[in-house]
Amino acid sequence: MKAVVYEKSNLPDHLVFRDVEKPTPADNEVLVRIHAASVNSADSRAIKMGLIPRRKILGADIAGQVEAVGKNIRRFSVGDLVLGDISAFGMGGFAQYVAVPESPLVLKPAGLSFQTAAALPMAAVTALQGLRNLGRIKPGDKVLIYGAGGGVGPFAVQLAKYFAAQVTAVCGEKNAEIIKSLGADHVINYHRCDVAKSGQRYDLILAVNGSRSLFTYRRLLTSRGICVVVGGSLKQIIKAMALGKLLSIGNKKLRSLHAKPNAYDLAFVIGLAEEGKLRAVIDRVYPLARTAEALRYQSEGHALGKIIIEVV
Ligand SMILES: NC(=O)c1ccc[n+]([C@@H]2O[C@H](COP(=O)([O-])OP(=O)(O)OC[C@H]3O[C@@H](n4cnc5c(N)ncnc54)[C@H](OP(=O)(O)O)[C@@H]3O)[C@@H](O)[C@H]2O)c1
């Protein structure tokens, strides 16, 4: 089969598109023929930090068709259409086939394209877990999504609206129109306006992109507000983990999200997508052979939605 394989010596991207052996599913595994995968920050971060999965093939989000099942598989049959985040099982999405346990997979509804299905798992579940689990979002909450462009942000805006919050989204100029069309009540262009000087306060801040100081986020909270740090620079994420407890003394809380793949959460966002309540914003689609280019574009940090890898 064709795959995009990590090879340290292959500069500058360390990725090679080549033939590798097609996997054979073990007794507890499903063999999926991948139709689409999507790129996440986790892929480029894995290369940067040298955290290379055992198969040496990156790619967490997959959508495809079950081609074979191991003898202990109960939930899936040959021919089923599936999607999932396989990051907990060694990744492997940037390939024509992957063999994984059944737990990260869910059935793909017929009405959802493979591209949309591949866009959802990591980014939409991250947004859901940030808003609902750590952020305890409630109807009427004033929610700030800082860094609303990119992979996670557009899902966060739509999910916050689904939970009946009043949403302010901070993003760049070129993202503003799309973010508004996803339902944001207010859109702030970070090139022109500083939300810190707006005089507004928020019940929940989801810090997705950008590196505002944690003290700024804290100042922007209402007296019982919660700030959930999802992403930003590595420095920002480490600071949030180190200072979270200190900055949570009193009623304001600062929490760091470590999103975990979860089939129930994935089924929840798929349900919303099927009902037309959650839309995947797709920025670019690359063929599998050009995955290195897709990762380079993602790591530049200015994608307008998800980046899809089409596998044929
Ligand atoms: N905690 C977790 O479990 C978890 C899970 C998944 C992802 N993450 C993290 O979440 C973050 C977002 O992931 P992603 O997939 O959405 O990344 P992404 O697609 O690379 O984000 C790109 C977006 O970031 C925006 N951006 C860049 N600089 C900005 C700034 N200074 N202020 C506001 N927006 C800015 C860009 O908008 P412009 O082009 O307008 O600048 C662009 O739309 C990453 O740091 C990722 O590592 C964390």
The CATH class of the largest domain is: Alpha Beta
Q: Biggest β-sheet: count, sense, barrel? A: 7 strands, mixed
Estimate the mean pLDDT confidence: 95
Rg from C-alpha positions? 19 Å
Q: So how many helices?
A: 9
CATH superfamily of the largest domain: Medium-chain alcohol dehydrogenases, catalytic domain
Q: What distance separates the N and C termini? A: 11 Å
Number of separate structural domains: 2
Global morphology: globular
Poorly predicted regions are none
Structural class: alpha/beta
Order of helices and strands: EEEHEEEEHHEHEHEEHEHEHEHE
Distinct ligands: NADP nicotinamide-adenine-dinucleotide phosphate
CATH topology of the largest domain: Quinone Oxidoreductase, Chain A, domain 1
Q: Architecture of the largest domain in CATH?
A: Alpha-Beta Complex
Roughly what percent helix?
25-40%
**Count the strands?**
15
Strand content: 25-35%
List keywords for this structure.
312 residues, Rossmann fold, 2 domains, seven-stranded mixed beta sheet, six-stranded parallel beta sheet, 9 helices, binds NADP nicotinamide-adenine-dinucleotide phosphate
